[in-house]
Amino acid sequence: MKQLLILTRREFWEHRGTFLILPAVVTGVFIGFLLLLLLGLSSNSIAINIDADWESEYETHELRVEDSSLMDVFGMKMAELAAMPESVREHRLDQLFTGISLIWIGVLWIVIIFYLLGALYDDRRDRSVLFWKSMPVSDALTVGAKLAAGLVLAPMIYLGFIVIAHLSLAMAATIGASGQQFSLWDTLWVSANFFSRWAGFLVLYAFTVLWCLPFFGWLLLVSSWAKSAPMAWAVGVPILLALLEGMLLGSDVLGRFFLEHMLSIEFWQQGREVISNFQLPEALEFVSALVVGMVLVALAVWQRGKADEI
Amino acid sequence: MSHIVKAMNLRKSYGDFEAIRDVTFTIEPGSIVGLIGPNGAGKTTTLKSILGLTSFEGELDVLGVDPRHGRHHIMERVCFVADVGVLPRWLKVKNAIDYIEGVHPRFSRAKAEELIRATDIRMDRKVSQLSKGMVTQLHLALILAIDVELLVLDEPTLGLDILYRKEFYDRLLNDYFDHETSIVISTHQVEEIESLLSHLLFINRGEIVLDSSMDDLADQYRQVLVNPEHVEKALSLGPLISRDLLGKKNMIFENADVEVLKHLGELHVPSVTDLFVAKMQRGDA
What we know:
The complex is a heterodimer of chains A (310) and B (285). By secondary structure, chain A is mainly alpha-helical. Helix content of chain A is 75%, strand content 0%. Chain A has one domain (2-49, 70-306). The longest helix of chain A is centred in the middle third of the chain and has 38 residues, at 139-176. Chain A is globular and about 70 Å long. Chain A starts with a helix and ends with a helix. By secondary structure, chain B is an alpha/beta fold. Chain B has 2 domains: 5-205, P-loop containing nucleotide triphosphate hydrolases (Rossmann fold, 3-Layer(aba) Sandwich), CATH 3.40.50; 216-284. Chain B has a 6-stranded mixed sheet with strand order 5-6-7-3-8-9, with helices on both faces. Chain A binds chain B through residues 2-3, 5-7, 9-10, 13-14, 123, 126-128, 130-131, 133-139, 305-306, 308, and chain B through 48, 51, 53-55, 71-76, 79-82, 85-92, 95, 98-100, 102-105, 139.
């Protein structure tokens, strides 16, 4: 356990830039943007109907912001929210906050992909594998720590920034809409369900990671084995396999499997529904994904045992 | 335990190329072994086999363990320095200490810090900010702070200038060697280490061509400055090498009768460098 902790810290030292600095900068830009809105410095061209991209059946409720100062955006939005029935308001806020989270989740996904792809490759390339392997650390623990850093540590940090972003947005709206007649506390802070939202993120994230384990395991395996261009192997082999399957058998089982377990966009969009509606077929696919993922990780460990400088 | 390392008929091929073949040797406790051979002779492959860093055929026992089955167990009792520049460039000095302290049960933080304080290396520096010589100093300081039974150095001073090379070996001998730890050093620069060795292994084209303690060397090998009138007789005794030197023939003999040799000319114990040249040229013939 002590070894696992120090190994995970070692990953953090190496990847501070993408694990910490990058989400901090994204969050900084986001907060800066909120400040600009609050100060009313920007023009209405950024009347980013915060929820414009979020198709919803409540579209009719949307206020059109024309030439008003952006300071008013918050006020009007809040007034609009206050006028809605509670369940509609909650749904609306859910879309808003989930939509905002997708910025960090998208960055996180890309960071994880590149991290895992380099995890067992970069140190072979710069020969430092000879140093790491001169330490009494087993290959399984080495790989395990890399998985833990990429799939647990980094997402926890990103979740921290999502929390900061959510709270900043809520604060900005509170400040912007201050002086209104309705209760901001009930309209925004209660209806946003922050704690269950963040807890829900954790559950959803855990499911997604396990669902995508074949993808992550595959990235690690390529990373442990490729002598050059790991990205090309990671992308090329699955495409080739899917094409071969299509040509020889005329089916698309592999292609669909690859796609579904790679990005799992459905999970993020309808995650709670997917999880709460778990039926036998989904459960079976879930378990098979886990097994495939673990086999790939085990292969990566085995390959790491033979790894040498390249 | 009688042996630190016992290797029997090690073999390793990369495709058609046989990196090592039938390599057999032992390393005794407390010895300093020089594994010496030209580039590509199989030195690194041999050392990596000992450390469990590569696959091989044959029998190998390192501190009672087969390295194929337990690299990380062996690494608790063996330290390894590959040539300069295997410390990752992004690593900070203080983090390197934290890391080794976290994973290595035999590491002494106090000793590492003391050794590093004796250099110009600052704790908050990254490896990428250090000169090549300083990286080597750092790596040496880190591993000297680990109490192990075997230290494996693979061309540890390659690419360093002479001042750092000298300091490296001085420090190794003064700070580390306590007659309990064994050291294996591979190099192709014989002259630098011959004074510190207690045992010699020459390797050429994947085969051990000489395996002798420094003490036995003097009995086994003789260098004779053969007077011109005895050259023919000397050649009939089959010298390893014969070269012209100041009008005489400089020959090196293996296991020859000293009583016979001393009538041929002036007798010497050959230097390791001369012996190395003799053995390697013989391999080429």
